[in-house]
Predict the structure.
Amino acid sequence: MMRESGRIVAIEDDALWVETIRQSTCGTCAAQKGCGQGLLNRIGDGRRNHLRVLLDGLPAGQFQLDEQVEFSVPEHVLLRGAMLVYLLPLLAMLAGMASSHALFASDKLAALGALGGFLVGIALVRCHAWLTRDSLEYQPTVIPPDSVSLAPHA
């Protein structure tokens, strides 16, 4: 499980809206200058994101606005999401280019086929995101606060 923390900005019956500040580990990466993610982090450092985090059976009354909370996202969800977002448009672009070149034997039409395939790949990613937006498997969940910290000190 990947853990993250954030500040509660809204409370619903079954979920919390949590504000996170994007953290960057790009300073320790060997590919600092050649990475697109590093560039995006430098441009948008300090940008705040809002996530809907499920309570997973915890009572909403136990949380307060502006309180810090930890939540988790399953690692397989992040891995599948990264594969889908990065590989599907690339594979669709290559398929569009190959099929256009095979059908028309023209480099210009192959370039248009690559562009069309890339756009179809992006549309498929958006469609997948829309279809799975309410799936509990893909939602972050609150990590219950430690019961040890609630115990009285002797």
